[in-house]
Design goal:
Elements lengths: L8 H7 L14 E4 L2 E4 L1 E3 L2 E8 L22 E3 L21 E6 L9 E7 L14 H4 L2 H5 L3 E5 L4 H4 E2 L2 H4 L5 E2 H16 L5 E11 L1 H11 L9 E5 L8 E2 H14 L7 H9 L18 E2 L8 H6 L8 E6 L18 H11 L7 H27 L4 E6 L20 H5 L11 H17 L19 E5 L2 E5 L4 H13 L10
Parallel strand pairs: 2-5, 7-8, 7-11, 11-12, 12-15, 13-14, 15-16, 16-17
Antiparallel strand pairs: 1-2, 3-4, 4-6, 6-8, 9-10, 17-18
Helix pairs in contact: 12-15
Length: 507
């Protein structure tokens, strides 16, 4: 038996919630998919199959091409460890043979079990991150497996490899959003193969955080992804994201290529680009504006909120939300409050500082959080509810007592991930464990049925008709109707007036 990790006391407490899939498998687990046979590992009482290629290596002539089918293999493939990461190294170099899926399933799960499936898409600004990589302790799906859910984490091309447009490449066909193409290819792989792991290809939930959350909303809008999933979870999803125009993306690509010594827009230029090391085209400018969705007319056809408002999204149950200090990603200065034009300042103060406390740093962080996440979540929730499907909206504001001094403005970006997955590697403090159990139970219930209310905790009402958010705070899980209405109305008015620019990229 291959065993890689030890249970913690917190893991034992979480395991008490588990459904009857916890009996350890005898010997290394095996699975057979269309590509060939796999030998996995037993980890914390569940089974993992990591580093499974879901597409051909996008290298050589396949660089900057839509993903091709993965090749089959003979014999048993060792699937006990992760594949290479798509994340660039410190020197900018990248391993481009990195399109892998990782499957974590309940012990003893067999083909035909029809278990619910959760496909996780990692964040990292479309530039860094891996599956499960840096958040491996948080997103390996072990606790979900103990609750009868199969988790699939997927990698996708990042940075220049994944989000790059150049006239020479675009003349060949679909271009720019190679990372999104990879995600769709991974979902097609799941649909074709997950039953062999015991999963139900007709009960698939996609989920992701930050760039992964953006990807979830983009996949909901992408015609090529239609029918590949039945539910969606978006964490910190930047719902008012506007894609880069194709003209701007190609201009940027031309400039980067010229910096690396490649000129022209013909087939010779495309061939020369494919021979370049990716670090020959380094990024300049802020991290949050380096890579991301490009308006290509096929995979990305509009801004996210615009597409949802037009009813172009998949009509599937949606769980969406963000944290109370998403501004931690941007670190706004307190002086941002002073920069509000006089004509709008009185309304801002009434919404964000009704008690006249004068804490400009808190106000600046709250305003930025509403700009990027909380108000866009409301807009997306309204559109999805209008489409007639269930929407469940959350606000994660919990800060562990041990971290309050370091996080005075609220729960920072990414803080909710460990609570949603609540795996045995988390080692939650006793004071944090009840909320971890609660958040994980709501997520698991939604993944299984599309309704988090079956988790057994306080009832989580749908967003409509009272625009209800579930607040996960030190007081536990509590629903609030018309949540933060004054602040969100103020920000919505700013959007309509064009006063607050929509984010063009995110982490």
């Amino acid at each position: 038996m291959i065993v890689r990790r030890q249970l913690t006391a917190a893991a034992l407490a979480l395991a008490a919630l588990s459904l009857p899939f916890a009996a350890a498998a005898q010997g290394a687990p095996a699975a057979k998919i269309k590509q060939g046979a796999l030998t996995g590992a037993v980890v914390e009482g569940v089974e993992e199959f990591w580093g499974i290629p879901y597409a051909a290596p996008p290298v050589g002539d396949l660089r900057w091409k839509p993903p091709a089918a993965a090749a089959p293999w003979t014999g048993d493939r060792d699937a006990s460890k992760a594949g290479a990461s798509c994340q660039p190294a410190r020197d900018g170099s990248q391993i481009e043979d990195c399109l892998f899926a990782n499957v974590t399933r309940p012990a003893g799960a067999k083909p035909g079990a029809k278990l619910p499936v959760y496909v996780w898409i990692h964040g990292g600004g479309f530039t860094i991150g891996s599956a499960p990589g840096a958040f491996g302790a948080q997103t390996d799906g072990i606790q979900f497996a103990k609750e009868g859910i199969i988790t699939v984490s997927v990698s996708y091309r990042l940075g220049r490899a994944g989000w790059f447009a150049h006239p020479a490449l675009c003349k060949e066909g679909s271009c720019g959003n190679y990372g999104l193409m990879d995600q769709i290819a991974a979902l097609k792989w799941v649909k074709a193969n997950i039953a062999n792991f015991g999963g139900d290809p007709t009960n698939v939930t996609i989920g992701g955080e930050s760039a992964g959350g953006i990807s979830v909303l983009e996949l909901m809008l992408a015609p090529d992804a239609r029918g590949l999933f039945q539910k969606a979870i978006g964490e910190s999803s930047f719902g008012r994201l506007e894609p880069t125009s194709m003209a701007d993306a190609q201009a940027s690509g031309l400039k980067a290529a010229q910096t690396a010594g490649v000129s022209g827009e013909d087939a010779a230029a495309a061939a020369a680009l494919r021979k370049l090391p990716l670090q020959a085209m380094p990024y300049t400018g802020p991290f949050t504006s380096r890579a991301g969705p490009i308006l290509d007319g096929r995979y990305v056809q509009s801004g996210i909120a615009e597409g949802f408002a037009a009813g172009k999204q998949a009509k599937v149950p949606l769980l969406i939300g963000g944290n109370s200090n998403e501004a931690s990603l941007f670190r706004p200065a307190a002086t941002a409050v002073d920069a509000i034009p006089a004509a709008r300042k009185a309304a801002a103060m009434a919404a964000f500082d009704p008690a006249n406390g004068g804490n400009k740093a808190q106000m600046a962080n709250d305003m930025a959080t509403r700009v990027y996440i909380t108000e866009p979540d409301r807009a997306i929730s309204r559109s999805q509810a209008k489409a007639g499907v269930p929407v469940y909206t959350y606000y994660f504001s919990y800060v562990t007592p041990a971290a309050k001094a370091q996080t005075p403005f609220g729960a920072p970006h990414t803080a909710e991930i460990k609570y949603a997955f609540a795996g045995p590697k988390q080692q939650f403090a006793d004071v944090d464990l009840p909320l971890a159990k609660a958040v994980n139970a709501y997520w698991a219930a939604f993944i299984k049925s599309g309704n988090p209310a079956s988790a057994g905790g306080p009832a989580w009402p749908k967003f409509a008709p009272n625009e209800t958010y579930m607040d996960f705070s030190a007081a536990g899980a509590q629903p609030h109707d018309h949540f933060l209405k004054a602040q969100l109305d103020w920000q919505e008015a700013e959007v309509k007036a064009g006063a607050s620019a929509s984010p063009t990229a995110s982490k």
